[in-house]
TrEMBL record:
Protein known as: Cytochrome c oxidase subunit viia
Family: Belongs to the cytochrome c oxidase VIIa family.
Coiled coil, from the record: none
Localization (cell): Mitochondrion inner membrane
Gene3D superfamilies in the cross-refs: Cytochrome c oxidase, subunit VIIa (4.10.91.10)
Transmembrane segments: 89-113
Pfam families (UniProt xref): COX7a (PF02238)
Length: 114
């Protein structure tokens, strides 16, 4: 009898509770991860060439500046806080929506009157 067939026969004979107990035993006896070194424990960042671990990257500073700009209480909706480009996109979207609605109504009225 082949090894694969023997193992499948042995698995078939096992009771589900036995399988569950073996799985729990192997889960509880797994080895734990080794403790992190000093460099790894600094939020996953290793010290760079300058040796400063707590240095904030430039991308994070830009992100914080953008977040601060959006948090200002200036009674503008969030979709207009980006400046003039956001206003242009908003106005063009509303304009195209109105044009599309007008064209749809014109088409429906033309088909209804035909």
């Amino acid at each position: 009898m082949s090894l694969l067939l023997k193992s499948s026969v042995n698995l078939y004979k096992l009771h589900p509770k036995t399988i569950q107990q073996q799985a729990a035993r192997s889960f509880l006896t797994k080895k734990k991860c080794p403790p992190k070194t000093e460099e790894e424990s600094q939020c996953g960042r290793a010290a760079g060439a300058s040796g400063r671990v707590n240095e904030i990257a430039a991308g994070y500073k830009l992100l914080k500046d953008k977040q601060a700009r959006f948090q200002v209480k200036d009674n503008l909706p969030v979709w207009l806080k980006g400046g003039p480009m956001d206003r242009m996109l908003y106005v063009s979207t509303v304009g195209l929506s109105v044009v599309g609605l007008g064209c749809s109504l014109a088409f429906i009225s033309m088909m209804a009157l035909k």
